[in-house]
Specification:
Length: 280
């Protein structure tokens, strides 16, 4: 949500999204940066977002607005600060060190925007720094900037972009970092969004960044376990819970060989389904 639009910001606590990102960067014109900072801070302090994570996307470290954006974090204390244009571990270290200087008991997480060729090249290094700098808890893919910086045409199947996305996915998964797929720009094309959510979920993305409220229901459905998946997961868990299977490493369930790693996957899926149900 653009931080300069008070009317839009007021809608944040009403939306069925997991997180609300208030933007001080690309969605805000240079002459409106100060106003956006003030309005964003007011919203984060005074609005009740319920279960929704409260995130603030600041301007990149090489811009004249970065220092002021970081300074205001001490006042508005979002759950996470979204750092754009991350290209090296040094970008994470610099922001993490600044956050360490802020007073307050509630830690502020860092969500890194991965949106340049250099971010792809340095993906492993950036992900690895999360061990020493645990504030880094999430990656967000910047589809638009990735494609623009490469001069890349992006057809609806994202065929040319997929190798870049999979490189980011491998690094994120190697270091247990959740990663969110990038935005789908044509918010009127709900069928296209549905296809891209399905593609992203199959790739291993953990969710999707959105730019319009009309996209929320489709993304929530696309990244939620289906009834069939829940049923199968319950079968797996129930089968392994039987006394005669307590020591089994592999079982045959509905004609499929199921190992204990599938039990862990089933338990994780059911936990996610339960968490989604609790929010409704």
């Amino acid at each position: 949500m653009p931080g300069s639009n008070a009317r839009v910001l007021a809608k944040g606590p009403t939306l069925a999204a997991d997180a609300i990102i208030i933007d001080l960067e690309d969605a805000v014109a240079p002459e409106a940066k100060s106003l956006a900072r003030d309005l964003a801070c007011h919203a984060l302090i005074n609005q009740d977002y319920g279960y929704r994570l409260r995130a603030l996307r600041i301007n990149a470290a090489d811009t004249p607005w970065y220092d002021q954006d970081v300074a205001v974090l001490a006042q508005c204390r979002p759950d996470a600060v979204v750092l754009p244009k991350v290209e090296s571990a040094a970008d994470i270290v610099r922001l993490s060190s600044s956050l360490d200087q802020l007073a307050g008991d509630q830690p502020i997480a860092i969500w890194a925007m991965m949106e340049s060729p250099m971010a792809v090249i340095n993906a492993s290094e950036i992900a690895a720094c999360s061990h020493d700098y645990p504030r880094l808890t999430m990656w967000l893919v910047g589809n638009n900037d990735l494609a623009r910086s490469a001069g890349m045409s992006v057809p609806t199947d994202r065929s040319y972009l997929l190798p870049w996305l999979m490189t980011l996915l491998v690094a994120a998964k190697a270091y247990s970092l959740p990663i969110l797929d990038g935005v789908y720009n044509d918010f009127a094309d709900l069928a296209g969004l549905r296809r891209e959510c399905e593609q992203g979920r199959q790739m291993g993305m953990d969710g999707k960044s959105l730019i319009h409220p009309s996209q929320i229901d489709i993304a929530n459905t696309g990244y939620s376990p289906t009834d069939a998946e829940i049923t199968q997961a319950m079968r797996v868990v129930e089968a392994f819970e039987l006394p005669e299977n307590s020591e089994a490493g592999v079982l045959q369930i509905n004609g499929q060989m199921v190992e204990r790693l599938h039990l862990q996957m089933a338990q994780a899926l059911l936990a996610r389904a339960q968490a989604l149900l609790a929010r409704q």
